[in-house]
Amino acid sequence: MIKKLPPSWVDFKNYLKHKRKEMSIEDLIVRLRIEEDNKIAQKSSYTLTSEKANVVEHGQTSGKNKSGKGKFQKEGKGSNLGA
Protein backbone atom coordinates (compact mmCIF):
# COMPACT_ATOMS: atom_id res chain seq x y z
CA MET A 1 0.00 0.00 0.00
CA ILE A 2 2.86 2.39 0.83
CA LYS A 3 4.52 1.73 -2.53
CA LYS A 4 1.39 2.95 -4.32
CA LEU A 5 1.71 6.49 -2.93
CA PRO A 6 2.85 9.10 -5.47
CA PRO A 7 6.51 10.23 -5.58
CA SER A 8 5.65 13.55 -3.92
CA TRP A 9 4.87 11.59 -0.76
CA VAL A 10 8.43 10.27 -0.37
CA ASP A 11 8.92 11.79 3.10
CA PHE A 12 5.69 10.29 4.36
CA LYS A 13 6.55 6.91 2.82
CA ASN A 14 9.91 6.93 4.62
CA TYR A 15 8.18 7.86 7.86
CA LEU A 16 5.84 4.87 7.52
CA LYS A 17 8.62 2.46 6.56
CA HIS A 18 10.76 3.35 9.58
CA LYS A 19 7.95 3.55 12.10
CA ARG A 20 8.58 0.90 14.76
CA LYS A 21 5.09 0.74 16.23
CA GLU A 22 2.45 -0.96 14.13
CA MET A 23 -0.72 0.93 13.28
CA SER A 24 -4.19 -0.14 12.30
CA ILE A 25 -5.71 0.53 8.90
CA GLU A 26 -7.96 3.14 10.52
CA ASP A 27 -4.92 4.97 11.94
CA LEU A 28 -3.19 4.79 8.56
CA ILE A 29 -6.22 6.32 6.85
CA VAL A 30 -6.34 9.13 9.42
CA ARG A 31 -2.63 9.86 8.93
CA LEU A 32 -3.02 9.80 5.15
CA ARG A 33 -5.85 12.31 5.35
CA ILE A 34 -3.82 14.57 7.65
CA GLU A 35 -0.83 14.40 5.29
CA GLU A 36 -3.06 15.16 2.32
CA ASP A 37 -4.57 18.18 4.11
CA ASN A 38 -1.06 19.41 4.96
CA LYS A 39 0.04 19.08 1.33
CA ILE A 40 -3.02 21.03 0.15
CA ALA A 41 -2.36 23.76 2.73
CA GLN A 42 1.31 23.97 1.70
CA LYS A 43 0.37 24.17 -1.96
CA SER A 44 -2.14 26.98 -1.40
CA SER A 45 0.34 28.81 0.83
CA TYR A 46 3.03 28.49 -1.85
CA THR A 47 0.62 29.73 -4.51
CA LEU A 48 -0.27 32.80 -2.46
CA THR A 49 3.35 33.74 -1.82
CA SER A 50 4.48 33.05 -5.38
CA GLU A 51 1.96 35.51 -6.83
CA LYS A 52 3.77 38.49 -5.34
CA ALA A 53 5.79 40.61 -7.74
CA ASN A 54 8.37 43.32 -7.45
CA VAL A 55 7.50 46.55 -9.23
CA VAL A 56 10.15 48.78 -10.74
CA GLU A 57 9.11 52.19 -11.97
CA HIS A 58 11.36 53.89 -14.48
CA GLY A 59 12.18 57.58 -14.28
CA GLN A 60 12.68 57.82 -10.53
CA THR A 61 16.04 58.71 -9.00
CA SER A 62 17.66 57.03 -6.06
CA GLY A 63 18.19 60.22 -4.05
CA LYS A 64 21.32 61.38 -5.88
CA ASN A 65 21.56 64.23 -8.33
CA LYS A 66 22.90 63.80 -11.84
CA SER A 67 26.47 64.69 -10.84
CA GLY A 68 26.64 61.65 -8.61
CA LYS A 69 26.99 63.64 -5.39
CA GLY A 70 24.67 63.05 -2.46
CA LYS A 71 21.57 65.20 -2.35
CA PHE A 72 22.70 67.07 0.79
CA GLN A 73 26.05 68.17 -0.63
CA LYS A 74 26.39 71.57 -2.24
CA GLU A 75 28.58 72.08 -5.26
CA GLY A 76 31.30 74.71 -5.21
CA LYS A 77 34.08 75.68 -2.84
CA GLY A 78 33.87 74.56 0.78
CA SER A 79 31.12 72.61 2.35
CA ASN A 80 28.77 75.11 3.89
CA LEU A 81 25.92 72.75 4.63
CA GLY A 82 24.25 75.14 7.04
CA ALA A 83 24.35 78.20 4.79
Biggest sheet layout = none
* Termini separation: 82 Å
Radius of gyration: 30 Å
Order of helices and strands: HH
* Overall 3D form: elongated
Overall mean pLDDT stands at 75
Please tally the helical runs, counting DSSP H or I stretches of 4 or more residues: 2
Number of separate strands: 0
- By secondary-structure content and strand pairing, the structural class works out as mainly alpha
Strand content: under 5%
Give the % helix: 40-55%
Low-confidence stretches: none
Region (Disordered): 49-83
Question: What do you see in this structure?
Answer:
This protein is mainly alpha-helical. The protein has a domain of 45 residues. Helices cover 42% and strands 0% of the residues. It has two helices and no strands. The radius of gyration is 30 Å and the shape is elongated. It starts with 9 loop residues before the first helix and ends in a 33-residue tail after the last helix. The model has no long low-confidence stretch (mean pLDDT 75).
